[in-house]
Specification:
It comes from Nocardioides vastitatis. InterPro entries: DUF1059. The protein is an alpha+beta fold and 56 residues long. α1 packs across α2. The chain starts with a strand and ends with a strand. It has a domain of 39 residues.
Length: 56
């Protein structure tokens, strides 16, 4: 299981994302981005997952 946390107190409470793999994690975060962080690109999301996702 892979995980990543989103902390943005100006937009929402802390959110903990989990998925079976990094690609599924990217997809979940893209859906979240569409609602809360429209200025973040798909490439930035992939970079965040690559550098910040961890095993749970």
């Amino acid at each position: 299981m892979r995980a990543l946390d989103c902390r943005d107190p100006d937009a929402h409470d802390d959110i903990h994302f989990t998925a079976d793999n990094d690609q599924d994690l990217v997809t979940k975060i893209q859906h979240h981005r569409d609602e809360y962080h429209r200025d973040i690109t798909d490439e930035q999301i992939r970079e965040m997952v690559t550098s910040g996702a961890y095993d749970e």
